């Protein structure tokens, strides 16, 4: 009997072979190509999967195309972003006026669009100043009144318990006090000090200048007490009294240091800035510095007054924050003679030469409470501080400045080591109220309360003759920066008889505005051209997305070329883009109103109109080519410039104006509303683009999904269900739905394949058994 196996095949005689082992073995008994047959049987599923993948690919391409459009819109939105250099809506970019000064060292200016073009003659007779209280230097300074007083003369020092040590200076040929001669003088002093075994390493010399005088500054460089002695033979005549040499005054000078002399304990004084009085109080210890006192002054006056020390001159001062005649600082010392310790005398600047870390005891303060009253002209404040061995000048400054909010007075140390009391354009008076001779605050700080201790703030006085004016108008300002008739003046100097006035020239230049408008039109047209192309390009149905099987037989270059053609027309006649284009074109076809009424649309319009025709047109129009999507073009640049130069207010209203009576009803559409009709063209565009792609500066990569109808459509996924049917038809929802469908189809195809292979396995098993029985029968009949 002939075998049913095809020739060249062998039968399986293993009747126990499981169906699992035969599941993917093709035609062992039947000779059938099972894989091909099964593949053909499930091809319907594969076709559905391919179509679903193609639909998903089209959605993803559409999403990419949308995102490119969104990126373009976000670039255009830079013109409406306050943080962008292109920003148009503030009016700065559309300002035609520029201002130039012929003497910027005296006055500079900027001009707004409301300023009148022409020349403004400016005479500055007085600058606005701050009220300031300043003490004498607390540094170890000797005035150089004449270089001949030092030439070949002797400087005598007492160093600790040693006898008087004298050094003789070299002869000085120059009589001119300047930086060179002063440098030579201190170099010679330091040379002679270095040559002395008693003085070397214990004291050094430098020079400082306050702009009027030159001083030799002696600084202690060791723990040894050093005194510059007077009345010695052949001594420098400028040394007219013994001078205890300290280590110099800085913000870190301890209040209890010999330079400041505060004693440990509480100190306080009142600061008055003309309107508010504050009490500055500080507990002085051996660690309290001048910086602590300066901080206390600032804190007490809420920054209205600052206390400073001049590290160069060693003077301490108080200075107001504000400028003008209303600025005043009045300091009333209520304990410990604080102002004297800070070096404040008949000027408002102390000759202190200390730092914030200088201890108060170093300045002569004894331990205990100190207090003084600080008055700025209208408000007084009691300042108190407990002086301890570690209390510093800074502790006192902190206490004074703590009441700055009330007094407007600030205590500080300047670069020369001077303690300063200053206050907002006000008088400063300081009254020591401690009643203690050892803790006389004013004395220890170098401030005398028996004489004038402040400089009152002054107003700026300026005479301005504007374009077309025959006489100057004098104005008094409490600041050196002020605006008048559209011009902002910045004063920095004073005119004199040689140069009685400075000129500010305001020039109207429409070219700048025209160029900015041109830049906008170029970028706007680029976006409109891109969107119009996407809306009108025809799709080629011969190029659907490729299936995986098709890609296997193509090169990457061929795939890229195919997909480029397949993407064409992906956004043709798209509803979102069509709506956006319609609204953008409508911006320019609707007139701008100053007062819109739906019942009478012919009234309330501004004087200008968009377009190129008519006496009131601005010379900008849409192109006549209906196929370009409504791009803009400047048809008459001369007319545009004329409008800018002669009707700039309405020009601004037309482009960047905003309604004066906004209707905030949330249920009303913006386009066509009274808000829309009274907004300028750029303002309308800003609002419309926000509706589609959110605010300027948000989501510039095109993937933002929280607001903007186009953003949400392109990027927001609502559907995360297992069946892919609960979304809102956004592109991510539709992509997700296709993904779920593809997954289901793949599962169905896999189940079908398994079922078919099982059926063929059963067939192979049956045929194998049949062949085995046939072989046995043939053997029995002898026919094999």
UniProtKB/TrEMBL annotation:
Entry similarity comment: Belongs to the FliD family.
Record function comment: Required for morphogenesis and for the elongation of the flagellar filament by facilitating polymerization of the flagellin monomers at the tip of growing filament. Forms a capping structure, which prevents flagellin subunits (transported through the central channel of the flagellum) from leaking out without polymerization at the distal end.
Superkingdom of the organism of origin: Bacteria
Gene Ontology, cellular component aspect: bacterial-type flagellum filament cap; bacterial-type flagellum hook; extracellular region
Occurrences of domain Flagellar hook-associated protein 2 N-terminal (ranges): 30-130
Flagellar hook-associated protein 2 C-terminal domain location: 457-772
One Pfam family this sequence matches: FliD_N
Source lineage: Bacteria, Bacillati, Bacillota, Clostridia, Eubacteriales
Subunit field text: Homopentamer.
Protein name per its UniProtKB record: Flagellar hook-associated protein 2
Gene Ontology biological process terms from the UniProt entry: bacterial-type flagellum-dependent cell motility; cell adhesion
Entry keyword set: Bacterial flagellum, Cell projection, Cilium, Coiled coil, Flagellum, Secreted
